[in-house]
Amino acid sequence: MDKPDALMPPAPRGPSKPLPKGACDAHVHLVAGLDEYTLWEGRVENPAPGPDFAQWMNLYRQHLETMGFERGVIVHSILYGTDNSVTVEAVRQMGDGFRGVGLLPDDADESALDQFARWNMCAVRLNYVHGGVLSWDGAKTMAPALADRNLHIQMLCHADQHMDQLADDICALPVPVVFDHIAWPSGPLSAHAAGIDTLCALLAEGHVWVKLSALYRMCEAPYTDAAELVARLVKANPERCLWGSDWPHLMLNGASMPHAADLLDALGAVVSDADRHAILVDNPARLFGF
Fold first, then answer.
1. Rounded to two decimals, what is the model's pTM?
2. Across the strands, what pairs with 24?
3. What is the C-alpha to C-alpha distance for residues 63 and 288, in angstroms, rounded to an integer?
4. Among 32, 80, 96, 214, which residue is least crowded by beta carbons within 10 Å?
5. Measuring CA to CA, which residue among 49, 48, 73 is closest to residue 250?
6. Helix 53-67 / helix 85-94 crossing angle, nearest 10 deg
7. Using one digit for the tens of pLDDT, what is the confidence trace for 22-76?
8. Angle at Cα 214 formed by Cα 208 and Cα 218, nearest 5°?
9. Shortest CA distance to 48 belongs to which of 226, 286, 249, 289?
């Protein structure tokens, strides 16, 4: 069955306010030409046609340089299933200051985890929104082995559907959980939506981190509809917040293609300069070991 093609991201431009030295874009994906890396049969789209892997790497470097980022975290895309090769190669080529987040199945053994750590991965990803290969039970079972390797769990879920059910398990884990995309409320984008009280409590207690990313998937630019929620998450614990562009904005599913600079400006509109510095520099350095 033919798959639709992703769209190309817009040409990058810098944010309104320059970034501090050591800033980290903590959430991007890298893709390649159709014939370069094996794509997962269950994917919902193909990478945007045209660029090959080397060209995507150049586009990523342009994104970083134009925005002002010096560090980054490359998150493996479900487009490639459990074959982490494209992400591993991207992390390898970027070198110091860059880490990866990859996919592992429930039955990953010790040797697979050792290899994962050698690839400079920092976390395994569990995806409740788009599906995936790691279950919550599998992640809980894997957690002690992750802790032994200084790895953590990164999770995409809907706060209103999942947070209350996950909370007790999260508190008992030997590793932190990082929630992508402000834990992506699937209902009204409210600072008091279901699951947000629980998320804020977990943040305040230091059990979880949250990426203030992908607002464009939940509302339109200039993203003021998300401002109250973002502000509440930062207030809960500014030392447990991160930021990511979600470049190159795969699987839009009806959302408008964003400019990463607008997303970064939306963060600056609701946080103090000190909290912005922590979110972009200090917090990722501490979590990812830069």
1. 0.96
2. 71
3. 20
4. 96
5. 48
6. 50
7. 999 999 999 999 999 999 999 999 999 999 999 999 999 999 999 999 999 999 9
8. 105
9. 249
Tokens 């990803």 correspond to: 125
The type of residue at 118 is R
- Interatomic CA distance for residues 112 and 59, integer angstroms: 31
Strand partners, 209: 178
* Residue 34: CB atoms within 10 Å: 13
Environment class of 77 (CB within 10 Å of its CB; exposed 0-12, middle 13-18, buried 19+): buried
Cα-based angle 146, 150, 153 (whole degrees, multiple of 5): 50
Contact assessment for residue 71 and residue 24, using Cβ atoms and an 8 Å cutoff = yes
- Cα distance between residue 251 and residue 46, in whole Å: 9
Judge contact between 201 and 237, C-beta under 8 A. no
- Which pLDDT band, with edges at 50, 70 and 90, does 130 fall under? low
Q: What is the per-residue pLDDT across 140-192, written as a single tens digit (0 to 9) for each? A: 999 999 999 999 999 999 999 999 999 999 999 999 999 999 998 988 888 99
Token pair listed for 235:
């207030």
Task: Decide: 242 and 287 in contact? Cβ < 8 Å.
Answer: yes
Distance between CA atoms of residues 21 and 89, nearest Å: 26
Count of residues making up the chain: 290
